[in-house]
Amino acid sequence: MNPQPGFESSGRSLLLLSLLLLAALAGVAMLTRPLTPIDETRYVSVAWEMWLRGDFLVPFKNGAPYSDKPPFLFWMFQAGWALFGVNDWWPRLVMPLFSAGGLLLTYRLARRLWPQHPGLGGQAALVLVGALLWIVFSTSVMFDVMLTFWVLVGLHGMLAATDGKRSGLVMLGVAMGMGVLTKGPVILLHLLSVAALAPWWNPGLRWGRWFGGLLLAVLLGVAIALAWALPAGFSGGDAYRNAIFWGQTANRMVESFAHRRPFWWYVPLLPLLLFPWFAWPAWWKALADHRRAGLDRGSRFCLAWMLPVFVAFCFISGKQPHYLVPLFPAFALLTARLLAGRADARVGLQALLAAALGGVMILAGTGRIAALHGQVAALPPVWPGVILIVLAGVVWLAGRRGAAPVPNLALLGAAMLALAQADVMHSLKPMYDVKPMALAIRQVQDEGRPVANIAIYHAQYQFLGRLKMPLAEVTGASAPAWLAAHPEGYAVVYLGSSRKLAAIPARHKQAYRGGSAVLVDARTAAELLATPVE
Predict the structure, then answer these.
(1) How many CB atoms lie within 10 A of CB 40?
(2) At what angle are helices 120-129 and 405-432 packed, to 10 degrees?
(3) Burial grade of 370 (CB within 10 A; 0-12, 13-18, 19 or more)
(4) How many CA atoms lie within 13 A of 259 on its CB side?
């Protein structure tokens, strides 16, 4: 007999717990980790330049149109700045807010897929917030969690459409359009694979009507994307227009099939990306039992969402772990379904692995790992490792005493990331916090002096320094000529290490991504380039 949907049986308490864990992890990230180069600082700087120009059509990076990404993320940053003023914290809250939306949509999706199991939504939300990759990118200034939000909106629309609601096709089309404005046409891969398999996960569907309605949804999505792309293309000029309509897509297709990474590259990463769930023996046993019992509609829907896209990403050689983020809600939903009603799920291996990580953290903090010496700005503290070992023991004991395994493991996964982040960033923050350099560059620019970046420039200083002028991007043989032509100027020069940093007369110097960076006058920069400091 199924319990009646109350506060607990509906899964709302577990949904609330997942939202609280997300809020805690976002707080830890904001307190321990700066906006880090290259990606996070670049994306916020693009929004900053749009803000300075008052141009909400064409993204700019260091004074030039930026065609690599569509504008929706940048619009979200500017919306917050319009409400709260320009600040550092709002861009870091955008992704946790979309992640919270993703948790709510996952919760609701479970209720659509398995109405006879009202508690699965809360379980799925906890599985999602406890997965390592989801946690990491929910607190990073990247596009993938936001893309996942639109994928989930589209899937809700798809299910509504299969129930005969025309508004579902409108929702699906809007999600496609907004997904394109978020990260380009990749959302079509995520949604159309599920839609193409609808006759499998939703038997009895009328094929002709379904695919006709799907075509209309795609056309709506295209219209939404073109509503930005057409005026932006004419405003940004020929090069920008060619990039957003053809060049960018063609180039990425060529690069994607250049076999830069092997077909199997994602497979060995799955135990880490899906930790702690993928390393859970009970999950594998439940999967085997569920397969023998037969797949229900919801399970087929999750597999149609997850497997074709994963295989497609395996064939595409341009691989990054965060490309898989939109597949994680499917994994979370399927995991919640597999574990429904099981009383034999026990926590053991994950607690052991967490305790082992805590031991490694203690060894690192006490200086026992020789490889760290000279590679970090300071040895990490010991206390996060101690807390993690204690917590792993508590989780193991709670599991042995019959504590619910999903909340137990979600708490362990979230605590592991929070403690590891506090531990690691103590050592790495000085190497990735570029705000001091950005502020030093601003002082030089305020004096009316030009500044060059002697390397490929990713706009990592523009927002953090609130710079109002671009830096000259000078590389290779052109550097001496620029320095000679601007004797009053300054340059940011990057060095392989910081061993001789103290001897360099610089306006500002700091560790930078395994090496060091110095802001020096043109004469000193020319000398450094002529006789590189190792």
Answers:
(1) 20
(2) 30
(3) exposed
(4) 2
What is the three-class DSSP state of 469? coil
Tell me the two tokens of residue 88: 């550092």
The pLDDT assigned to 237 comes to 86
Q: What is the pLDDT of residues 313-352, one digit of tens each?
A: 988 877 888 899 999 999 999 988 888 766 556 666 777 7
The span from the CA of 71 to the CA of 57, in Å, is 8
**Pairing outcome for strands 515-521 and 490-495:** antiparallel
Q: For helices 405-432 and 383-400, what crossing angle results, to 10°? A: 170
Whether 380 shows a pLDDT value over 80: the answer reads no
Choice between 244 and 398, residue whose per-residue pLDDT is larger: 244
Measured CA angle at 383 (ends 378, 384), to 5 deg:
90
Q: How far apart are the first and last CA of the chain?
A: 72
22 by DSSP, 3-state: which? helix
Q: What is the SS3 assignment for 356? A: helix
Q: What are phi and psi of 464, to 5 degrees?
A: -60, -30
pLDDT for residue 4 is more than 50: no
**At 214, is the secondary structure helix, strand, or coil?**
helix
Q: Residue for token digits 């009328």?
A: 206
d(CA 82, CA 78): 6
Residue 244 pLDDT grade (very low, low, confident, very high; cuts 50, 70, 90) = confident
What is the SS3 assignment for 385?
helix
With a cut of 60, say whether residue 6 has pLDDT above it: no
Euclidean distance between CA atoms 358 and 365, whole angstroms: 11
- Between the alpha carbon of residue 121 and those of residues 7, 10, 108, 117, 289, the distances in Å are 12, 8, 6, 9, 21
C-beta neighbour count of 135 within 10 angstroms: 24
Query: Token pair of 253, please?
Result: 């297709």
Residue type, 30: M
Q: Which residues, in sequence order, are CB contacts of 360 under 8 Å at separation 6+?
A: 369, 385
3-state helix, strand, coil in the chain (%, to 5): 65, 5, 30
Three-state secondary structure call for residue 195: helix
Q: pLDDT-derived band of residue 373, with 50, 70 and 90 as boundaries?
A: low
| Bridge partners for 204 per DSSP | none
Mean pLDDT of the residues in the chain: 86
The answer to whether residues 94 and 78 touch, using CB atoms and an 8 Å cutoff, is no
Question: What DSSP character marks residue 70?
Answer: -
Kind and range of the H or E element at 491?
strand 490-495
Q: Exposure of 432 by Cβ count < 10 A (0-12 exposed, 13-18 middle, 19+ buried)?
A: buried
**Burial bucket for residue 251 (CB in 10 Å: 0-12, 13-18, 19+):** exposed
Residue with the two structure tokens 């439940």 = 286
Mean pLDDT of 129-143: 90
